[in-house]
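User: I'm putting together a small comparison set for a docking exercise, and I want a reference complex before I start. The sequence is below, and the ligand is uridine-diphosphate-N-acetylglucosamine. Could you produce the 3D structure with the ligand included, as structure tokens?
Assistant: Of course. I'll restate your input first, then give the structure tokens for the complex.
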Amino acid sequence: MQVLRVTGGARLAGSVDVVGAKNSVLKLMAAALLAPGDTTIGNLPAISDVAIMRELLERLGCAVTESTQDSTDRVTISTPAELNPEAPYELVRRIRGSICVLGPLLARTGQAKVALPGGDAIGSRPLDMHFAGLSRMGADIRTEHGYVVAEASDLHGASIWLDFPSVGATENIMTAAVLAKGTTVIDNAAREPEIVDLCRMLVAMGAQIEGIGTSTLEVTGVEGLRPTSHDAVADRIVAGTWALAALATRGDITVRGANAGHLEIALDKVAQAGGDVEVTADGFRVVMDRRPKSFDVVTLPYPGLATDLQPQAIAALSVADGTAMITENLFEARFMFCDEIARMGADVRTDGHHAVVRGRERLSSAPVRATDIRAGVGLVIAGLVADGTTEVAEIHHIDRGYVRFEEQLRSLGADVERVESATFGG
Ligand code: UD1
């Protein structure tokens, strides 16, 4: 088993580059299914989720090639005229994001058989809004033998209200609506930067979408879409992770290739904690020279504070001066992370979807396990502010979303290494 061995004490200082967002790239890759021909996506992150999405697209009939141009990674997806509409369980279960092939497959082939991804470590993740929206557009949807089977000989426009601004449901409905007959209105749509990114790519492919970036999207179906070339939006969660790592370690980190406008609340929290935040032309810099002050966190759909930054915020708060209240409104099981960081001496108490963090001067090293991607990096940040050497196991989670994480940490001065450990925790 591979673990990250993190020795605490260093102040992170230097520059890091952020590339395209995992949560955008996976959807952009799936959207390539909508147009026969070669679609290229740039600013590609070299993460394991992209490799799995690649395998899935190949299984659906695409040829996929990766290349590097001007030192950025790109992927070209050659989509055939005839697609295989079945997404198998062995791939879907490895990345939940792969459910985003449902809308494009249905729109292109009139049918889709996509394995149900099941639950995961951040909690119950139902797909009811995806299914209700596609049903309203005329799809017949049923689940059988662990698969969602969808058929639609004639997808048509519809008026759809989402009970909650779900990112995945907005994406699946939108990518089906771009080729449906008539106009689909999605009310209470998600407006994350990754949704805007997908809209922009779809428009470049010839789609008609109004209201981009608002909570009402109006999509008028067109006869066909054409392939395009598109660079993925910067990963705001990776950028926010660096901001919180700078805060926790009293560091000085310049983040390049990011959009500070996508992190307004997170950077405002960093400033409240005493960090000096400077927005630059291509990112931001966070300088921290003292112990952070506590701040409260409420996770909400964008433009609220991202749930994907919650564990990293708790890591910083666990060494802050004061008491913080965390309210998690999206994924209840995300607090499993609190049990791990508590093993490192963090004073965290949870009750339902609230947690109270009483800051300590320092944490103490312990063997801990990453329960999901963001919990993994949260534990690494905790290790950086702990006495001794912390071993973080299950780091395949971190590799799903962070490019060469430990190398970047080392370039900032951290004492971190990836080692094989046969005796983790023993
Ligand atoms: C995406 C991101 C994930 C991020 C999340 C919220 C990807 C691959 N993942 O996940 O990293 O944490 O957005 O920003 O992009 N819900 C339902 N029924 C549904 C759909 C969702 O009840 O049909 C609920 C979920 O349980 C959750 C909330 O709605 O409580 C938001 O989920 P959603 O926005 O759909 O998240 P994902 O798209 O799965």
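The pocket of uridine-diphosphate-N-acetylglucosamine is lined by residues 23, 26, 97, 125-130, 164, 166-169, 190, 306-308, 330-331 (CB under 6 Å). Residues 22-231 form a domain with the UDP-n-acetylglucosamine1-carboxyvinyl-transferase; Chain fold (CATH 3.65.10.10).
User: Thanks, that's exactly what I needed.
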